[in-house]
Amino acid sequence: MTPGSLERYETELTNAGLVILEMEAVSKEDAALQLATKLFEQGRVSDLDGFLRDVNAREHQMATGLPGGIGLPHARSNFVQEISIAVGITKFDHSLDFGGVDGPATVILLVATPASSFSVHLEVLATLARSLFKENFRESLRRAHDAEVIAELINSTLVFFDH
């Protein structure tokens, strides 16, 4: 493990309490609000409005939709103490436009990173993107219907990200 790796985080990046199944959101901003609220409730975000401003500012710079129906909103923020990921799986027949080239998203991962953690932020995003480009991984997330399983899938893909 290199300095700055995930080992220094005492808590997992995500957990079942940070997963929203059957998510119904009216917009990508609404989805970000629902997911950020979960982070705030667990004390992973100190100021909900401030963090959402950072997320929305990042979202205006460039679309965060990935191929395969993935939304990956993210922000480095002064209102985040430890890197965390909240996950939303949309309700059947619901999807959200995150600007993905192949259409709207049904799996949304909100990545919250401390403002000072630039390299870790990039590594987590890159590792997540690599996993999310695999159709079987995306389908596993969509079909899990279990918050614990979804959290475990996300955590396990990031365990070895810096080797």
Automatic annotation (TrEMBL):
<dbReference type="InterPro" id="IPR016152">
    <property type="entry name" value="PTrfase/Anion_transptr"/>
</dbReference>
<dbReference type="Pfam" id="PF00359">
    <property type="entry name" value="PTS_EIIA_2"/>
</dbReference>
<dbReference type="InterPro" id="IPR051541">
    <property type="entry name" value="PTS_SugarTrans_NitroReg"/>
</dbReference>
<protein>
    <submittedName>
        <fullName>PTS system IIA component, Fru family</fullName>
    </submittedName>
</protein>
<dbReference type="InterPro" id="IPR002178">
    <property type="entry name" value="PTS_EIIA_type-2_dom"/>
</dbReference>
